[in-house]
Amino acid sequence: MQWAKGLGLGLGAAAFLGLGVIVGHFAIPKGADPPASQDLDLEVLDTVIGQLEAGGIQENLRELAREPHLASSPRDEALVQLLLQRWQDPASGLDEASASTYEVLLSFPSPEQPNLVTVVDPIGEILFFCNQSEKNLTGEQGGPDVVPPYAAYAPPGTSQGLLVYANQGTEEDFMELEAQGIKLNDTIALTRYGGVGRGAKAINAAKHGVVGVLVYTDPADINDGQSLPNETFPHSWRLPPSGVERGSYYEYFGDPLTPYLPATHSSFRLDPDSVSGFPPIPTQPIGFDSAQVLLCNLRGNMAPDTWQGALGCDYRLGPGFRPDGRFGEYSQVNVSVYNRRELRNSSNILGLIRGAVEPDRYVLYGNHRDSWVHGAVDPSSGTAVLLELSRVLGTLLKKGTWRPRRSILFASWGAEEFGLIGSTEFAEEFFRKLQERTVAYINVDIAVFANATLRAQGTPPVQSVIFSSAKQIPAPGPGGLTIYDNWIRYFNRSSSVYGLIPSLGTLGAGSDYAPFLHFLGISSMDIAYTYDRSKTSARIYPTYHTAFDTFGYVDKFVDPGFSSHRAVAQTAGSTLLRLSDSLILPLNVSDYSETLRGFLQAAQHGLGALLEQHGIGLGPLVSAVENFEKAAMALNQRMLALQEGSPDPLQVRMLNDQLMLLERTFLNPRAFPEERYYSHVLWAPRTGSVATFPGLANACSRAKDTAPGSAAWAEVRRQLSIVVAALEGATATLRPVADL
Amino acid sequence: MQWAKGLGLGLGAAAFLGLGVIVGHFAIPKGADPPASQDLDLEVLDTVIGQLEAGGIQENLRELAREPHLASSPRDEALVQLLLQRWQDPASGLDEASASTYEVLLSFPSPEQPNLVTVVDPIGEILFFCNQSEKNLTGEQGGPDVVPPYAAYAPPGTSQGLLVYANQGTEEDFMELEAQGIKLNDTIALTRYGGVGRGAKAINAAKHGVVGVLVYTDPADINDGQSLPNETFPHSWRLPPSGVERGSYYEYFGDPLTPYLPATHSSFRLDPDSVSGFPPIPTQPIGFDSAQVLLCNLRGNMAPDTWQGALGCDYRLGPGFRPDGRFGEYSQVNVSVYNRRELRNSSNILGLIRGAVEPDRYVLYGNHRDSWVHGAVDPSSGTAVLLELSRVLGTLLKKGTWRPRRSILFASWGAEEFGLIGSTEFAEEFFRKLQERTVAYINVDIAVFANATLRAQGTPPVQSVIFSSAKQIPAPGPGGLTIYDNWIRYFNRSSSVYGLIPSLGTLGAGSDYAPFLHFLGISSMDIAYTYDRSKTSARIYPTYHTAFDTFGYVDKFVDPGFSSHRAVAQTAGSTLLRLSDSLILPLNVSDYSETLRGFLQAAQHGLGALLEQHGIGLGPLVSAVENFEKAAMALNQRMLALQEGSPDPLQVRMLNDQLMLLERTFLNPRAFPEERYYSHVLWAPRTGSVATFPGLANACSRAKDTAPGSAAWAEVRRQLSIVVAALEGATATLRPVADL
């Protein structure tokens, strides 16, 4: 199976070119192709950075965000054709591009029966309708292509009961309500976004007998407290009262019916009714205008201070409404959901620049294409950057002035909003090929949240290459700072190795890097421009996943002039080029030493005493970390020796293989059998407060209240051995390749 | 962690040499090292083959088999020193050698309380003692170092009951006994070796209420019917009446307490009492002399014809003894077992020849060192060959006339007899490093079963290189045939691609190749000389796992003159050199096409109708196989084109990576969660008669009697998708490396 299916067209040609590649770049007619660069060419790098234009990104975004392009919608398919056309352009396209389609389970509201949230009195009279759609403030919020607000994968059904306010719908929140003597059985819970994932709110609620869940965005969490129409979009970047955050309420990622298998037409599929991870009860998101009417009429105890918000009233817990309020004490809330789960075709698009020297080494650069509505910020800001970057590189390629040392693979993923589906299916289909050959994955999803500073997340080996890129590029705005110098003003940490440096964030599972990092063990990163946290406490940019996330919104409020978009394109582009063209891979594996040392110290301080009480020593972990540090340092010395000499190609390849494959050595598919796709023993989800090895931390929090000798304590010991074995295994791969 | 621990001595040197390797073989002082050969040097190959001496192997074996060397015994440790000394010899040693120790769970009989099998009458009088040890026929079967016959890992305990004869102790055998109206509760079952694994006999028996198990070797199965003292060893190679096959009765492989983790001192260990895979009831092997006394006195129905043997009486089923026989009808059999499970240190020894050009590519060659008693055939015949081969290569190395292109790693594994423990712990400890870098694993355990013909087993990619070796070497004995031409006379098949060729067997889990193939996905092979099946139907060589497997036995009966040993050394040595020195790896991945086509046809003919009835089509599997065939053929064409040109080193490396890593692409650690270590979707254990994809075949046999829509039928669909995804994934890795 090719990387990409569906467009058979490219195949014959591909096979021919493939032969060309193997027979070598010599075989590619001269003139058509430049002599292969043996190392990063700084002139080319400057050229690329210089040719990336804000205006180009702006025009890309205008087109990409012109219409809503929900996954598998006609406009989504039209964008597939648009990207293919760009990547196949004779003057500025790539070597090859094609689309690949999977058949995946998505979830949509019924076109015939809108989801409905109402307040009804005891005789069934409807006293109040929550808004079923957002107000059409700019002429873009109406029309058939704007999907009404809904909770994707929430089951159809009608629930009715007394309303309670459950804050963020965490397990603790529901326990607090019960502690206050509130019976949750058969109630409807009003929750606000934040604290836990979307799906978790409904799953937690159902555990406590709640029969329906409403979710809204509190102005305190998104608008720095402001909520009036004249304070919000289109008068500012803030969320208007009718704005509703859509989103997937599925707990895992990947196509829900084909875990670990590519969702091809013929693939085995689970029975949808037996799939875990879906919300168990009807769930619907609403705007804070409607939420205010419900919340400000609740009776009962005053909610705790931390539960209060900015809707201009005291938040009470319920159950039910005030007798002296708008609805009367016997009125209930009715939640009617008509969502449907459907198998739909969703496409990834892949665009390739063939490497001249090591075509079998891939640098992946991707973003998703699908949005909830117009998705100007999410994801089109990233796609606009992707297209500008591929245009500049494609133009150099077609001119014959440049071809990378390694292959570059651009990807436009489908159905990310439903749970990283396109990227996960791709990772499942090409598991081994990607694991063996992928140098790194660069993700630029939301390119610009705000225009204050760069924000990068990634695994330790990518820190150095992102820093190199950021030091080379001027930051937008006055002051003449580099992106790096500007970045360090906003996010910094004191490194035991480097002193004060910008702090690279860690990767969760919020975008398409998740399958590459957690399932395939590929060094990954996510790059964006973001907020000045001293100016806003917004959870995320205010119109996130609403119909107000439009081109005008970006053009006027998020990044006027698109200079932050350009800065992201330059940073990501420079990082891409360094990874694809450098003779020696710019992956500093020794930066893992600082992370491991930090995890170790956190384990010693945070868990050491507890473990001690149960006769579990951290000695083996201490030596494992020390062994890693020594081996990484020695590897760096050998690398320097190699760079000083005139290394032969195989010596470089052997070293690069060690650098590329280090991340893989941390995978253990048997470490967390209950955590789907999570195999990376350092970055799996961590419960509990100690920032350390997740398997160990999670096992400790499960064991701490159990008896000595319990199965939970055995699991702590097992997790300790798993991480020690992973570190010692990683160290073995860093040692000289032919040492005993 | 280095490859090898324990002997810190080598480490500093290792690090220095390691640096040397990276800086390149240029850096190694001239004179000390020859210019690196870029391709296989046929002169060197002939030299090696010519210098391998039967006499050297004979003397190795004389020393290795001089004393019993049970795993972790003092003599086993002495042999560790002997091998280290050979591999560290200044004139004929390797670059480096060191030992590495694991702490593993073994099982031994009690030195104080011998296991005892008796016949007792109703008042407790002992009427008969089964022999507790083998007769000391050559002066080698006595003494403290000869471990008495026992069933390793069988639990201690005493059971007593009426005796039944249960043939081979298969599930079907016990069902047959019940069908004949025999109540198995509280009986002792006498079984004979063969049919199923050792442990399975006890596990099956316990399911039917049996409380103790005896196992013996029937002369019909091992001696072609002969059983008299003057017909057997020391008068012939046949098993004498008191001979008892020892063995591990553990159902899995690897250290029982540390599945998937290396058995380091600090590793997490399971509670031994909660480990699965051990025999649940007292079990003891006995000689056919004792078995005859028991079996020929049984009462009850005549056993089926296929259950009859060569003990010179009619085999009856019991329960209990004949009233007119030696014991009387109320006598019972008592089985008293005093085995102990103990944590013991067991060592692997690793010897390295550093590759000159690609030191990070490893060709592994290994055999276990531990035996049950003297173990002249098993395993010392293989170790004697290993030492002769390492001597010849080491001498060339030390002379400075040769250094391989790739690294060669020789291994002497510990505790194989208890369940492939040393090799499995090594595979667990260096999982990623081995997966990334190992070209192939060559196993020579029992080098010579008999001296008629070569017998090789392996995965398809190794067929061609074994054939090349076999065609180059003269077969022992008259006729002037090559090993290949002699081989084809004994084992052959008609290949759709090659016509009549020797048939390469498939690999199960009978020796140390199992963890490398099934857990790591490394192309593996096992090479030996074996029987003329027209002359004997023996299950295996007669003295297998007995105290009669001695140097004299080999020297006199198995391979007088050691010419078959030499033939194995030459074949394995040639294969090793071809894999380590050839510019392009001699792994013919396209030979997998014939295997896949065969599996597919077997699935179509053997399962197609059944699947059809349940609406399961094999279409996706058909195209997956076709896609693989096309990609493999195209790869071969590119390889030829490359060989004709003057390929640059990276082009060769890229192609070799495709060849080396193909086997890996068939691994899916989530395919068979219940089958410990088995991840290879083509070679996992297969129940049922259809020789096809094991996951599919096994799922079908479980599903065939269940209702449509059962979970078992869903598993059939899942297994079909798993194998399709594995084949398509493999195909993707064979395609040109930079094709979309």
Q: How would a crystallographer describe the biggest sheet of chain A?
A: 7 strands, mixed
Structural classification of chain A: alpha/beta
Return the CATH class of the largest domain in chain A.
Alpha Beta
Provide the residue-averaged pLDDT of chain A.
Answer: 94
Largest interface: chains, residues each: A-B, 88 and 88 residues
Helix % of chain A is 25-40%
Q: Please give the count of helices of chain A.
A: 21
CATH superfamily of the largest domain in chain A: Zn peptidases
Global Rg of chain A? 26 Å
The CATH topology of the largest domain in chain A is Aminopeptidase
Number of domains of chain A: 3
The fraction of residues assigned to DSSP E strands of chain A is 15-25%
Shape call of chain A: globular
CATH architectural category of the largest domain in chain A? 3-Layer(aba) Sandwich
- Tell me the total number of β-strands of chain A: 19
The side-by-side strand order for the widest beta sheet of chain A comes to 1-12-14-13-15-19-16
Low-confidence runs of chain A = 1-31
Task: Outline the structure in words.
Two copies of one chain form a homodimer. Chain A is globular, with a radius of gyration of 26 Å. Chain A has three domains: 2-101 and 344-448 and 509-581, Zn peptidases (Aminopeptidase, 3-Layer(aba) Sandwich); 110-338, Glucose Oxidase, domain 1 (3-Layer(bba) Sandwich); 590-734, Transferrin receptor-like, dimerisation domain (Transcription Elongation Factor S-II, Chain A), CATH 1.20.930. Chain A has helices at 10-23, 42-51, 54-64, 74-87, 171-179, 198-207, 219-222, 288-295, 376-399, 421-429, 431-437, 463-472, 483-490, 513-519, 551-558, 563-581, 591-613, 619-644, 649-661, 694-703, 711-734; strands at 96-108, 116-120, 126-129, 151-152, 157-161, 163-165, 188-192, 212-216, 247-248, 283-285, 332-337, 340-353, 358-368, 406-413, 438-443, 453-458, 492-495, 499-502, 524-530. A seven-stranded mixed β-sheet of chain A has the order 1-12-14-13-15-19-16, with helices on both faces. In chain A, strands 3-2-11-5 form a four-stranded antiparallel β-sheet, with no helix packed on it. In chain A, strands 6-7-8-10 form a four-stranded parallel β-sheet, sandwiched between helices. The two termini of chain A are 39 Å apart. With 740 residues, chain A is of the alpha/beta class. Mean pLDDT of chain A is 94; it is low at 1-31.
